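> tool_call: predict_assembly(chains=two)
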Amino acid sequence: MPRKGAFGNEYKVVLVLRGELRLTAGKAAVQAAHAAVMLYEAAARRDRGLLDAWLAGGQKKIALEVATLADLEALDRAAKARHIPTVWVEDAGLTEVAPGTRTCLGLGPARAADVDAVTGDLPRL
Amino acid sequence: MPRKGAFGNEYKVVLVLRGELRLTAGKAAVQAAHAAVMLYEAAARRDRGLLDAWLAGGQKKIALEVATLADLEALDRAAKARHIPTVWVEDAGLTEVAPGTRTCLGLGPARAADVDAVTGDLPRL
């Protein structure tokens, strides 16, 4: 997967899970995959050029974690303030969580430097 | 998320990870998300109606696990024999695995009954 590196034209997606839900690895993977597809669809409608740039760069993704829903909501506000696209994943609640639980916030695709400015201090999932 | 249930028109995607790689939850989530986006793009090119049916049903996904690469290759052959679309995720190898390592097999979207016939016995991730 080609990467653009330090030239300011690298794009990324960040998938942020709620640690307090203590999801299994499989459940977390499914929430992250939901978010990635939702971000893809939103970008295809809004800015196909940006989507293609992200895909051409190897569709770079990373999964991070916050503790609580409040942390995730704060992250959503910080992203919106920088015009970074976000999507919320709500789980159908068939297994590990109650129906409608917000499990994951997806951010991007957006310039890596912009995304890092709001997610850079978060630990990896 | 609406579900179609027992009427034979329920579609799903299955994301299968290699247990032997002992990926972190975050790394596994990223591989699963890569696979989901690749399956989405392949379906958009091949059969938009099927893709839309899967999306309308809540883009149902599940993450499962096999032990080894050989198991994953056998699963790929079984899926192809039933005309179920598959994608391989190869990791860029920047962190936990060697470059080019095949980390995940994605299957679908396809009729749930068809997918279950090849993945039904596998444990959840």
